[in-house]
Write a structure and sequence with these properties.
The protein is built from 8 helices and no strands. By secondary structure, the protein is mainly alpha-helical. Helix 1 packs antiparallel against helix 2 and helix 2 runs antiparallel to helix 4.
């Protein structure tokens, strides 16, 4: 299934009239998408012996490499979809530039931060520690 998505991504980029700069960015994103799929479904590749552990390490290194290559264009790629900041539900990347204020507000509003210690600690972790 992932192969089909990557193949169509590549075909779509190649068959659309784009400037060379945009084509380069989209082809780089396509390469990352392909590598990401191999990494995500690495168990299938290992079980079928299509990749060995050393090759999978190279894939993971390539994944990190592509992230650093894509990074300068990441905001532009997301903005190209013209999705409003509220739909992203993210404190980062808002047009108003109040990233840190928004990040602090979002952590204060999180249900995980309503108490000093989350109730799951008392329910699960503390009894385990007591047994040690």
């Amino acid at each position: 299934m992932h192969y089909y998505a990557v193949a169509n991504f590549y075909t779509g980029v190649e068959n659309v009239d784009l400037t060379p700069d945009i084509r380069e960015v989209l082809l780089t994103l396509c390469q990352f998408f392909a590598i990401y799929g191999i990494s995500k479904y690495s168990g299938d590749f290992l079980l079928s012996s299509a990749l060995n552990a050393d090759q999978l390490e190279i894939v993971r290194d390539l994944e990190q490499h592509f992230l650093s290559v894509i990074r300068p264009n990441a905001v532009s790629l997301v903005d190209a979809f013209d999705i409003h900041d509220k739909c992203h539900n993210s404190a980062l990347g808002c047009y108003d530039g109040n990233v840190y204020q928004r990040l602090v507000e979002s952590t204060n509003d999180s249900s995980l931060n309503q108490t000093e210690v989350h109730h799951s600690f008392y329910k699960y972790i503390k009894p385990l520690i007591a047994k040690l």
